[in-house]
Amino acid sequence: MRAMVLSAGYGTRLWPLTEDRTKPAIPILGKPLVGYVAEYLAKYSIDEIVVNLHHRPESVRRALGDGTEFGVKLHYVEEPEILGTSGALDNARQYFQDDSFVVINGKIITDINLTDALATHRRTNAIATLVLLPNTKRELFTMIKTEHGLISGFAGMPTSVDLEPLMFTGIQILHPRIFEYIPRGIFSHSTTDVYPQAIAKGEVVAAHVATGRWRELSTLHRYLDISLELMKEAGNHITVGSGCVIDEAAEITDAILWDRVVIEAGSSVQKSVLADGVRIRSGESVANAIVVPAALVAGKNPPAKSLKGQIQGENFVVSLGSGTISAS
Hints:
Layout (H helix, E strand, L loop, with lengths): L1 E5 L20 E2 L2 E2 H11 L4 E6 L3 H8 L8 E6 L5 H8 L9 E5 L2 E3 L3 H11 L3 E7 L9 E4 L2 E5 L11 E9 L15 H11 L4 E5 L4 E3 L3 H14 L4 E3 L4 E2 L4 E7 L4 E2 L4 E7 L4 E2 L3 E10 H4 L12 E3 L2 E13 L1
Parallel strand pairs: 1-4, 1-6, 4-5, 8-12, 14-16, 15-17, 16-18, 17-19, 18-20
Antiparallel strand pairs: 2-3, 6-11, 7-13, 8-11, 9-10, 20-22, 21-22
């Protein structure tokens, strides 16, 4: 069985961490996010994967290589112009003509049982099966409407009056006939341009309501919180990438250090992400912040959806609360 991992997005809400890489190439505890997705698929013997690329394509190629490290074989498909979630499928349709296949977002970490979802897909003889989860926290994910085990529509964001809203996990199983509903050669999205039309024509679009753990890393807050959550589950309070230099007299807790980070004596880092090449000078204190080298973003226009940051010394800092770099 084959799968497609959607990896072409800009990751604007994760900027400035996505200035030099795409969202799926961001490291989580030393492993690229998309690597978790590849390993998840390989667990279910889905070992031939198509990966679409657009923003910073070389970052995904570096992260995944030929797939051997993650137990899969990879095909890369580039999009000179970004095509959307279903336009990406159109661009790679030559790989998916013979059998049902899985499509999954490249920004999630999950242990949802995919075997059960595949069973639902086959039992219902669906043209598409969307894997859903109860949105018990009423987070800002589009509500999915269902009737008798089938998708009936896509609504707005949940409110306090919505009882047991369901959300889409970014995992879907598709029959090749879905290509009959995907426009050729243009930008399109599955949930706005494909599934509504298929449902209107009487096609079976199944809803598989799953259980399990699911983490979606699309914002700076979610990236930091989920990284810290995973660290604590592993019994750690700090993650250190390659080539880092940390003075013994520095105070560090609940921190994610990418590669080549330098933390000098007498400095303090708490609940923060320090990207490649960041240096925290002696006497400086960092808390609740995302930090990248100022040179990385010099002269760049921040994306519209990104959080505001500021230059502080040789670093660019995005505060996630009271975060800053201050000198003692």
